[in-house]
Amino acid sequence: MPNLLIKVPATREGLPAIRQLISEGISVNVTIIFSVARYKEVLAAFISGITDRVSSGLPVSGIHSVASFFVSRVDTEIDPQLKELQLESLLGKSAIANARLAYQHFSEVYESLEWKNLATSGASIQRPLWASTGVKDPNYDPAMYVNELVARHTVNTMPEATLEAAANSQNFKGDSITGKYLDSKMIMSELEKNGIEMEKVADKLEEEGIEKFIKPWLNLISVVEKVTR
Amino acid sequence: MIFSRGFDLSSNHWESLNQIAPRLAAKDHTIWGELAENEAAQRLDWIDLPQTSRQLLPILDALSAWSRELGHKRFILCGMGGSSLAPEVIATHYSKQLEVLDSTDPDQIAKVLAGGIADSCIIVSSKSGTTIETKSQFAFFHREIEKLGKNPSDHFVFVTDPGSSLEAQGKSFGIKVILANPKVGGRFSALSAFGLVPAALLGIDVSVLLDDAEVAAKNFAQPNSEPIKVASALASTPFPEFYDADSIPGLGDWIEQLIGESTGKDGRGVLPVIVNQKSGETITFSQADTKSVYGPLGAQFIFWEWTTALLCFLLNVDPFNQPNVAEAKDRTAAILKRDSKQNPPIFEDEKVQLFGGTPVTSLEDFFGRFLAIPSEYIAVMAYLNRKSSEIHLIREVLAKLTNRPVTFGWGPRFLHSTGQFHKGGPATGLFLQITTHYTSDLQVPGEAFSFSKLISAQAAGDQEALENRKLPFFRVHLKESDSGVKRLLSAAKSLKN
């Protein structure tokens, strides 16, 4: 089996595709996830795919998946609104709080009996992957989205500058997610109280994210067509 | 749905239970008082097993497909107490062959082996993974499977709690492990992996059990619901009789463990008496009888679990602990290291040896004196082969002679059931233990003891625990099992009341 993960966007339309691919034994990188609500559906689709295979007696070992949760774009979207509302204390905190709550759901599922029984059949969990972890605001610690999102089973993909910043950072302190769920919830409810709805933010970011994928996809297809013609 | 007949609402208990039932439905762990809170918080997931156990269905489908592919013809279950009683009822109810091995009797184990295990599926069930009977049986059968040149991973299935030593062992052997919800106690685990895995392997559609339980439980939190009625009646019935032979055979034994082990503590308790002939006051599972609880098997399980939890509230005991079971286990472990000290027999002939009390002149004399000792109930505990011995017939003989409630338990099986009541319930029992010389013996691989040494140590451990409480205890040791049983039965039958 090639060491290959097929990228599938976490749109509503993408969800059944995730289940289908996993149930066919194809490893999947689910991408552009912005909200906890959508992340829950993504993880559920992955588990349904694994369950489909287990109940048909098909092997599940060797199937891998990551759920790519986009981080910095959330702050980039929310921070200007916070500045307008004069809520400086919340600047640069929304993205991390959002990601931590996604991880809380992950760890609940990972500890569930349902998952443990699938794991004894040889299945590997779908790992949360922090994407878009380069800091866009020069006022922030350049390794912020790395050091603040450390926990078991996570993957962090980062641009080279962020990688170097993280390597040289003094702020690495091990697990920085577990035990911070209550704080994260409070941040999210502060945002909501002030009229910033995470669902709407996520919808907007998803739309923009899809746009960013369409052009490279069309380019890729035309290259493949040229080569195979 | 499930209904009861013949349980009237004459007691005052049902009013308080009407307040408690909705709290039970909401898994309120504070129902049984402060001392029980911590345990209860970890033990209430049986309430929603009819829903949550559905998560297991895909795994069970895969498991039965695996078993069919390997062509398993025999299904053997190694497990004690809650791990074996529910699977046994389910298998019997659906007319499936499940050989339940809840014994350390070497004759019984030898017989299972002699039946041929080359095409068998052996289910090893233990919540903790440390149950000495089950551990020893696994060690034994694992070696036998290897002797046949077979791969153990094709013949064993483990059912256990996440994180148990059995899970780790299964993983290291490459054996299939199904994990059960750890927030369900053993005797409440009928609808968890412990009940469902053996059932699914036998080809039973377990979703029917879950459906029936789910439908029935919907009404349990309503005022004057069926479990409320039955629990209020049982609160003033210390020794309720149960008869199951013509309806759901084995359900009585399952209820005996559930109620006996849950309620029998702090000097209080209700001890079910399983009878083989019904009278007007006997509880049955057939609509045709005057006092009965009738409904499908899945509904029966959840009904009696609810009833027991409510009954424990009325008796003011913690339904989920078993504080006095460990004592006999600990004493057994100690005896395995140092042997037990036994007083010389008070009588001996060519068939039997008798122990306890002052010398007697004959077996008949012994029985006469034994039965003259006042007690609220008599417990007969026989460490004999459950599959072939007729010793259980003695229960009815003694019951007729004394008009007292007489219970019968197979050792070591009852240690995981009524054994808690004997030691933790009201100190009003009179105890008769029956042991035997075993014709065969089998070594437990990796241990310093054989099965005959283990079962003897279990009997001696329980004897110590009972005698330590100053409870009247006597032992009949048979020099040969079958002829000894015949002699014992004829001596008991010769007595006049």
Description:
The complex is a heterodimer of chains A (229) and B (497). Helix content of chain A is 55%, strand content 10%. Chain A is of the alpha/beta class. In chain A, helix 1 packs parallel to helix 2. The radius of gyration of chain A is 19 Å and the shape is globular. The two termini of chain A are 27 Å apart. The relative contact order of chain A is 0.14. Chain B is an alpha/beta fold and 497 residues long. Among the domains of chain B are: 160 residues, 3-Layer(aba) Sandwich (Rossmann fold), CATH 3.40.50.10490; 169 residues, Rossmann fold, CATH 3.40.50. Chain B has 19 helices and 15 strands. The termini of chain B are far apart.
Rg of chain B computed from alpha carbons, rounded to a whole number of angstroms: 22 Å
| CATH architecture field of the domain at 325-493 in chain B | 3-Layer(aba) Sandwich
Domain module count of chain A: 1
Named CATH architecture of chain A: Alpha-Beta Barrel
The total of helices of chain A stands at 9
Question: Biggest interface: chains and residue counts?
Answer: A-B, 13 and 20 residues
Mean pLDDT reading of chain A: 94
CATH class wording of chain A: Alpha Beta
Helix content of chain B: 40-55%
Report the total helices of chain B. 19
